[in-house]
Write a structure and sequence with these properties.
This protein is an alpha/beta fold. Helix content is 44%, strand content 9%. A 5-stranded parallel sheet has the order 2-1-3-6-7, with helices on one face. A hairpin with a 5-residue loop joins strand 4 and strand 5. The longest helix is centred in the first third of the chain and has 29 residues. It starts with a helix and ends in a 16-residue tail after the last helix.
Length: 380
């Protein structure tokens, strides 16, 4: 009898554990932490911006952006790190996706170039935003592997979800919001269906900026770390790998534009000093080797006509008004790019939202006000 009771208790405990695991699997799938394909499906079935996605447990966007690219099959695409995430689909007159956030190192760029080259219906226009640290031999992340997309709930995922409750009630928000991913549920920030990032919580002040007066970015620079390792010369071998990736994209794409994205004014003033001379050196080498791709450098923010630091999200990320200005200038100088742009819309967008970091966010949330979240004295 004792053995029978023990067996019954063991089976009951096992069944209870199985039900708990199954419940967690369903919950994490429902909120978008598992099954990125399902996330893409749900986003594409809704109006742009209605469902934002950003995982709170795995913020590497590589696999998500690949899935989005494959599903949309865009005619125009932006490729790059988080510094290509503010390029919006509404800036274009054709199907568009930004793969911004997918490239954290040179290896990512090479694999995405290979993916674009193999796609059955390649894009007609590719905008490739190249960060300077990709050609810095001291940048240690150029070969970092891409983490796998979780398919099953795990103990780490459970503990991560519980820890996230300290920052906001994502469980409760999942019942009221259509957003997906724990981070998006807490902060109302994440990727829209075109792949572009919305910083709504930062814009309205509900999420405190970690780069007020660019203190965090300056800390990275002075600490010689996190993308800002000093060097005086770019590595020619790394530049050659970037150029090879660009040329691979170009072989299947009608037109390729290589862009050097900007830094905020005081950040660039520091990075333009001799101990970071590799940046200008690398972009000069890059412009000489990209072949028939167009090259535009906005690394110095003074090159962006009418732009201000008030239109930046932080020290190294311009907002969507900044990127609209850049596209406008590219279109003026490059007729092949201009044919894919909504030129009149860009002009009106810049005029309406000048001085703001997120014009599209203000349009997405009518009545929302953008605050001076960087503490720069910006009049919004």
């Amino acid at each position: 009898m004792t053995e029978k009771r023990f067996l019954q208790g063991f089976l009951a405990a096992l069944l209870s554990l199985g039900l708990i695991v199954l419940g967690l699997q369903i919950l994490m799938t429902r909120v978008g932490e598992i099954d990125f394909k399902g996330v893409v499906d749900r986003q594409l079935a809704a109006p742009n911006g209605e469902i934002l996605f950003l995982s709170g447990l795995n913020q590497n966007a590589y696999h998500y952006k690949i899935m989005l690219f494959d599903r949309v099959s865009p005619e125009a695409v932006a490729i790059g790190s988080s510094r290509a995430m503010e390029v919006r689909g509404e800036f274009f007159n054709t199907r568009f996706v930004t793969m911004g956030g997918a490239i954290n190192n040179l290896q990512n760029l090479e694999t995405i170039a290979e993916h674009v080259a193999r796609t059955p219906t390649p894009p007609q226009l590719a905008l490739v935003y190249v960060d300077p640290w990709l050609f810095n031999a001291r940048y240690t992340d150029n070969q970092a592997p891409v983490p796998d997309v979780p398919k099953l709930v795990s103990a780490d995922m459970l503990f991560g979800g519980l820890k996230a409750l300290r920052h906001g009630n994502w469980l409760g928000n999942s019942l009221r919001s259509r957003n997906l991913g724990i981070y998006a549920l807490i902060n109302d920030e994440g990727y829209a269906r075109d792949g572009s990032q919305y910083y709504l919580g930062t814009q309205n002040g509900s999420v405190a900026s970690s780069d007020v007066r660019f203190v965090r970015t300056f800390g990275r620079i002075e600490g010689d770390k996190q993308n800002f390792q000093r060097n005086t010369r770019a590595d020619p071998a790394l530049v050659a790998r970037i150029c090879a990736a660009v040329k691979k994209i170009r072989r299947r794409t009608r037109h390729v534009v290589v862009v050097a994205p900007p830094f905020a004014t005081p950040i660039w003033a520091r990075l333009s000093q001799p101990d970071y001379a590799y940046i200008q050196d690398g972009y000069e080498q890059l412009s000489a080797c990209v072949g028939d791709a167009s090259f535009f450098s906005f690394v110095d923010p003074a090159s962006i006509r009418g732009g201000t630091d008030c239109e930046f999200v932080d020290g190294l990320h311009g907002g969507d008004v900044t990127y609209a200005r850049m596209l406008n200038q590219i279109g003026e100088a490059d007729p092949e790019t201009r044919r894919y742009l909504r030129a009149d819309f860009l002009t009106a967008f810049i005029e309406r939202y000048k001085g703001h970091a997120g014009g599209s966010g203000l349009a997405l949330r009518p009545g929302m006000k953008e605050v001076d979240f960087l503490g720069l004295g910006c009049r919004k």
